Amino acid sequence: MTKNTIKMEALLLVSTAFVAGCGKKEVDTLPPAAEGTDYGQTPTADPNANGAGQITPGSQEDFLQQLGQYGDRILFETDRFNIDAEDQATLQRQAQWLAQYPNTRITVEGHADERGTRDYNLALGERRANSAKNFLVSIGVDASRIQTVSYGKERPSALGSDEQAWAQNRRAVTVTVR
After folding, report:
1. Residue 69: what pLDDT?
2. DSSP strand E in the chain: where?
3. Which residue in 33, 39, 40, 143 sits closest to 95, CA to CA?
4. Which residues make Cβ contacts (< 8 Å) with residue 86, sequence separation at least 6?
5. Domain locations in the chain?
6. How far apart are CA 31 and CA 27, in angstroms?
7. What's the CATH superfamily of 55-178?
């Protein structure tokens, strides 16, 4: 082997090792939940209840128990913020639950997938949250009980860079506020 061949092989080996060590960093933790919400919290017991671990009526845990694991969210197509028939059914169930607890306020969080700029995704998340809010108001929920916030792509539900993860991240999530 010549000196040039050895140098080229060594350079190739070092550059391969360097590139292999520069893979995409995986996100381990997500930003904290918005203040005043139960989102992402573990169920808490009602201090006035007789048994430990009972769910407090009107809480986020009660909301999820009554509506199902994913009854707190509606999903959107890419770059869309329209409410389809399936979303309407979910929001109608949310409105029925809210009618049982007239003092419970909610925040509708708008989210986007990781594609697109931060500003674009924040604006899209806002449109998604407002679409859900407007539908809830149109079926009788008092607008003063509903706040909206957009997280854009900052708080993904599913980590990953594929269509399955993106589909789960294009959403509006309803969260109870205490």
Report:
1. 81
2. 73-75, 105-111, 146-152, 171-177
3. 143
4. 74
5. 55-178
6. 10
7. OmpA-like domain (3.30.1330.60)
All residue ranges of the chain with pLDDT < 50 are 42-51
140-174 tens-digit pLDDT: 999 999 999 999 999 999 999 999 999 999 999 99
CB 104 within 8 A of CB 58: yes
Q: Under a CB-based contact definition with an 8 Å cutoff, are residues 88 and 172 in contact?
A: no
Percentage helix, strand, coil for the chain under 3-state DSSP, each rounded to 5: 40, 15, 45
- Using a cut of 0.85, tell me whether the model's pTM lies above it: no
| Contact (Cβ atoms closer than 8 angstroms) between residue 23 and residue 164 | no
Question: What is the Cα–Cα distance from 142 to 138, expressed in whole angstroms?
Answer: 9
